[in-house]
Amino acid sequence: MSDTAAGRTAAGGTGTREERALAALAQQTIELPSWAFGNSGTRFKVFAQAGVPRDPYEKIADAAQVHRFTGAAPRVSLHIPWDKVDDFDALARHAADQGVAIGGINSNLFQDDDYMLGSLTHPDPRVRKKAVTHHLECIDVMAATGSHDLKIWLPDGLNYPGQDSIRGRQDRLAESLQEIYAALTAADPAHRLILEYKFFEPYFYTMDVPDWGTSLLHCLALGERAMVVLDTGHHAPNTNIEFIVAQLLRVGRLGAFDFNSRFYADDDLMVGAADPFQLFRILHEIVQGGALAPDSGVNFMLDQCHNIEPKIPAQIRSVMNVQEATAKALLVDADALAQAQQDGDVLGANGLLMDAYNTDVRPLLAGLRESQGLDPDPLGAYRRSGYAETIVAMRVGGAQAGWGA
Ligand code: AOS
Ligand code: ZN
Ligand code: ZN
User: Fold this and answer.
1) Which residues form the signal peptide (predicted)?
2) Alpha carbon nearest to ligand 1 atom 5, residue
3) Closest Cα to residue 190, out of 153, 152, 139?
4) What's the CA-to-centroid distance between 230 and ligand 1, angstroms?
5) What ipTM goes with this model?
6) Residue 303 CA: which ligand 1 atom is closest?
7) Single pTM value for the model
8) Any bridge partners for residue 196, and if so which?
9) Which sign does the torsion angle of CA 326, 330, 332, 337 carry?
10) Which of 18, 146, 158, 267 has a CB 3.0–4.6 Å from the CB of 262, allowing a cystine?
11) Distances (CA, A) of 305 to 80, 131, 134, 290, 336
């Protein structure tokens, strides 16, 4: 970037653009998924790694390492029942002792035989009731852990035309969500229901929440504490994801991201690995929309599996990738961009974005970390800490994410 002159940008505040970027980056937080620390990955072989957590306590301990070296990952999402423990208060205290907090609570509607033909949309009211009741359990976990977000990814859908009524399933879904939302907001009016969408998989003819429009319609019907979750891996190839981000921000319904990368399907690879430019474009919409600050209502989460790479460093790398894309977005000269757009200066406007994208922000972020008392090189610092060797020596028989423990 050539210009660091004082002025107002979408990042807000005073000072040079770089100073404002640093201030915004210092506040940015990224939530980690507990399941990223267990053995997990594709439908095919899950390669077991030595030293992986044996229980939710150890998953949180590993997540805390990511926060220790990045200073930007202070929350961990839990998944019920994978992270079920006898005493959730104790788990929350353990998290606090480790310097992190419990983030969103993810329900699970895809591992029970009863759910073969659906859960919240199932034709049989008994199965729907069971699925709703699972969410009541998740709401109790929220109370015990201090979590604010109930995250629903609905795996329901159809494999064959005619298999069930598409419209009937939407009606049943609306009813089931209403019951969950009523219980959630009765427990605490500040709590949020955040609803994810996914265009295919595990079903292939249609999903019951296949797209952001369907998620948004259900959220609008529920009430103002219902928000859409955008998983970056859940779209058809070449979908313009930043358009969806801009649209949901406009109507105040972008609740959270599940960040990851995809090359083909729901790959769950490290965010920013496949397409760092797309991540930058998404973060540009976030910055332009004033949605970066922790109180903006958008929760920036990772949803990833690390099958062949070591998990803690992969999470550190992912946090750094989000930070780098954010830093570039914060360096866009917003005033000049607005002027170029107003003037119809197509190449000028595009050039301003590309200038920011092509800036090497690694020194800026290294400086930020040093100013926070952190090592400027989080991956190197983790490697040198010896934590990886310690857990390999201590832990035997680590868990596969998703199958208990
Ligand atoms: C599934 O495809 C969704 O991305 C979920 O958000 C998430 O991966 C799952 O809940 C973790 O099991
Ligand atoms: Zn997801
Ligand atoms: Zn997914």
Assistant:
1) none
2) 153
3) 139
4) 11
5) 0.97
6) 8
7) 0.95
8) 153, 229
9) positive
10) 267
11) 17, 25, 24, 30, 40
Q: d(Cα 83, Cα 108) in Å, to the nearest integer? A: 11
> What residue type is 329 in one-letter code?
A
For ligand 1, atom 8, name the residue with the nearest CA. Answer: 303
Q: Which has the closest alpha carbon to 61: 300, 311, 268?
A: 311
Structure tokens at 158: 């159809």
**Structural domains of the chain sorted by starting position, each given as residue range(s) with its CATH number in brackets:** 17-394 (3.20.20.150)
Task: Convert the pLDDT of each residue in 272-301 to its tens digit.
Answer: 999 999 999 999 999 999 999 989 999 999
Ligand nearest to the backbone CA of 258: 2
Q: Name the closest-CA residue to atom 3, ligand 1.
A: 153
Best substitution site from 108, 119, 232, 258 to test ligand 1's pocket, by max atoms within 8 Å of Cβ?
258
Name residues with Cβ closer than 5 Å to ligand 3, which is an ion: 266
Q: How many other β-carbons are positioned within 10 Å of the β-carbon of residue 400?
A: 16
d(CA 141, CA 401): 19
Q: How far is the CA of 49 from the centre of ligand 2 (A)?
A: 23
**C-alpha of residue 4 to centroid of ligand 2, in Å:** 37
Q: Which residues line ligand 1 (CB under 6 A)?
A: 35, 79, 106, 153, 196, 198, 231, 258, 266, 303
Chunked into runs of 10 residues, the chain (405 residues) has average pLDDT values of 40 83 98 94 84 96 98 98 97 98 97 97 98 98 98 98 98 98 98 98 98 98 98 97 98 98 96 98 98 95 96 98 98 98 98 98 98 98 98 84 50
Largest CA distance in the chain: 63
Residues with CB under 5 A from ligand 2 (ion): 231, 258, 303
| Nearest ligand (C-alpha, residue 83) | 1
* pLDDT tens-digit map of 307-363: 999 999 999 999 999 999 999 999 999 999 999 999 999 999 999 999 999 999 999
- What contacts 369, CB < 8 A, 6 or more positions away? 70, 71, 375, 376, 378
Cβ–Cβ under 8 Å, residues 319 and 365:
no
Query: Within its chain, how far is the Cα of 231 from the centroid?
Result: 7
- The count of C-alpha atoms lying within 13 angstroms of the C-alpha of 78, restricted to the half-sphere facing its C-beta, is 33
Mode of pairing for the β-strands spanning 206-207 and 157-158: antiparallel
CA dist 151 → 307, 352, 379 (Å): 24, 37, 30
